[in-house]
Amino acid sequence: DGGITQSPKYLFRKEGQNVTLSCEQNLNHDAMYWYRQDPGQGLRLIYYSQIVNDFQKGDIAEGYSVSREKKESFPLTVTSAQKNPTAFYLCASSPGTKGAEAFFGQGTRLTVV
Amino acid sequence: AQSVTQPDIHITVSEGASLELRCNYSYGATPYLFWYVQSPGQGLQLLLKYFSGDTLVQGIKGFEAEFKRSQSSFNLRKPSVHWSDAAEYFCAVALNAGNNRKLIWGLGTSLAVNP
To answer: Do the chains contact at A106 and B42, CB–CB below 8 Å?
Structure first.
């Protein structure tokens, strides 16, 4: 089945530790996105990538980093510089063509204690 | 600046009643519009999309939406709501500026369904 896989579904980390969230897609999509979701704040764009080896900051990139070494993979690292990392993180992909919709993974809930 | 507004943060309807969720957008060019649904703790699923042509578009799960350019609106409707429709609903506009391809999101409308 084609789709987007995020892992793990739940993640717990101690404050001050970096953590990497996985996102893999087998849809052959060029574009990939990371969103953060907090109650009442909708989806906020962290980073996005439209081709391999290239990515751009979104609206709330501070404290996060990404890489796009392969078309299929777009991991997100939440660094210790992120002041409030506990949230629900969503990865999405898109063909990247004009007006194309995004396809979403099931999300990772990160809790930092 | 481009923006999407969903005026209703939370809506409660009775099962079997009709539903309309509002979405207004601010975008200078021809809009590409989407409605997504999210169940608790899950990712988002596309309900329907509008690119051009017929302004009334049909989606999955019995939903439809109507694009009204004069009102900058793209409201989502369903004639008869089922308990399983309880979820969060998001409206989005596709931003297409040069090589910049991303979606602008509304803050969502939470739908509760009374039995």
So the answer is: yes
